[in-house]
Write a structure and sequence with these properties.
elongated
């Protein structure tokens, strides 16, 4: 599955347009990560626990979006974007969305 944040895939033409697809995940904060984050706030530095949490959430949202696109017959998702929103105290949704398309080589340049 080709994923891109631009409106086309270079060297390819859009042969079929399937429409909007999306995938989301809701993640809650972890008491251990919160404790370590509190310590990092005092001494400074990267909050690696939260970095890992967000990387996992982005991957899962992209995987779910890709699965939806593939089920429609797409081989690419263009204009991929991310959105976040708070859904409860200490929990947030990460949503990935884009336009599912089928692309093929553009032999006309």
């Amino acid at each position: 599955m080709i994923l891109t944040n631009i409106d086309r895939v270079p060297g390819m033409r859009i042969a079929e347009h399937y429409g909007l697809v999306g995938g989301s995940t809701v993640r809650a904060k972890n008491i251990g990560r919160d404790f370590m984050a509190g310590l990092k706030n005092i001494v400074g530095g990267e909050l690696k626990g939260y970095t890992e949490l967000l990387q996992e959430a982005r991957k899962q949202a992209l995987d779910r979006m890709s699965a939806q696109a593939q089920a429609m017959g797409a081989n690419a998702v263009i204009n991929v974007r991310f959105s976040t929103s708070a859904v409860a105290q200490g929990a947030a949704e990460l949503y990935a969305y884009g336009t599912a398309v089928r692309v093929e080589p553009d032999y006309n340049g």
